[in-house]
Design goal:
The protein has a domain at 73-193: 2-Layer Sandwich (Alpha-Beta Plaits), CATH 3.30.70.1730. The protein has a five-stranded antiparallel beta sheet with strand order 2-3-1-4-5. It is built from ten helices and five strands. 55% of the residues lie in helices and 12% in strands. It is of the alpha+beta class and 251 residues long. The radius of gyration is 47 Å and the shape is elongated. Pfam families: Ribosomal_L10. InterPro entries: Ribosomal_uL10, Ribosomal_uL10-like_sf, Ribosomal_uL10_bac_type. Component of the mitochondrial ribosome large subunit (39S) which comprises a 16S rRNA and about 50 distinct proteins. This is Large ribosomal subunit protein uL10m. Belongs to the universal ribosomal protein uL10 family.
Length: 251
């Protein structure tokens, strides 16, 4: 009896679910029309898009121009900082940055810091605000791509800068400013080959001294020749009486 109760009454049966589709293949290109009530709801919630205006591109361009004219106070502060770096640096190098790891970039920063050089990276908009209407306006085309600037208060350390850049192929020198003069890459390298100011002054003083000494020697040349000729004439004239006296004594 217990086995009968256990098998017939206490046994649980899981329902069998089978999904059936009353139609065959669904037509995606021409679907079946929904029910009337559902069609009403779908029509009610359908989004309404505004038709584009015929002069929408012009209006969008004016709107973007107005947004660009909005001044950013933080960018103005950074632009003043850039202007301060430009005015107070005796040497500035403009570097095109290729892909470089942050670790390698930090090593370059340390190498430049040993020679009191600072490397800075600014956006194009900040550079435009910093140099518009100034003598540095010619550097704006250099910032079309990612560009860094290296500032140094001493222009005599240009050789150390070139040595650091030679060891870093990711940094490409494009141009530079030395003592307020804009130089190309070739002129920047040629300036590094020049001697320092003290040596150049010594060479100039030597050239000027040699030129003055040559002028003095040229002016005194005829006088010296005249003195030499007179001296030789006096010697010859003084030797003739002695020779006559010796000849008479022998006779």
């Amino acid at each position: 009896m217990s086995n009968l109760v256990h098998k017939s009454l206490l046994q649980s049966r899981s329902p069998l679910i089978s999904f059936q589709r009353f139609r065959g293949k669904i037509n995606i290109q021409r679907p079946r029309q929904p029910h009337y009530e559902r069609a009403r709801v779908l029509e009610l919630v359908k989004p309404v898009y505004r038709e584009p205006e015929f002069n929408a591109p012009c209006r969008e361009a004016d709107r973007n121009k107005a947004i660009k004219h909005i001044e950013n106070q933080y960018e103005k502060i950074i632009a003043r900082e850039v202007r301060n770096w430009l005015d107070n640096s005796q040497m500035i190098a403009f570097i095109h940055l290729n892909s470089i790891r942050q670790e390698d970039f930090f090593k370059v920063q340390v190498a430049l810091h040993r020679f009191q050089m600072n490397i800075k990276i600014y956006s194009k908009s900040i550079i435009r605000q910093a140099v518009d209407g100034t003598k540095y306006e010619a550097i704006k085309p250099l910032f079309e791509a990612k560009t860094a600037m290296i500032f140094c208060p001493d222009e005599s350390k240009i050789r150390q800068l070139l040595n650091v850049l030679k060891k870093t192929p990711q940094f490409i020198l494009m141009a530079g400013i030395v003592q307020g003069q804009f130089l190309s890459k070739a002129e920047f390298v040629d300036y590094a080959a020049l001697p320092d100011l003290t040596t150049a002054r010594a060479q100039l003083a030597a050239v000027l001294d040699s030129a003055g000494a040559k002028i003095v020697s040229d002016l005194e040349c005829h006088q010296n020749q005249l003195v030499t000729m007179l001296d030789s004439y006096v010697r010859l004239s003084g030797a003739k009486p002695g020779q006559t006296e010796s000849g008479s004594n022998e006779s």
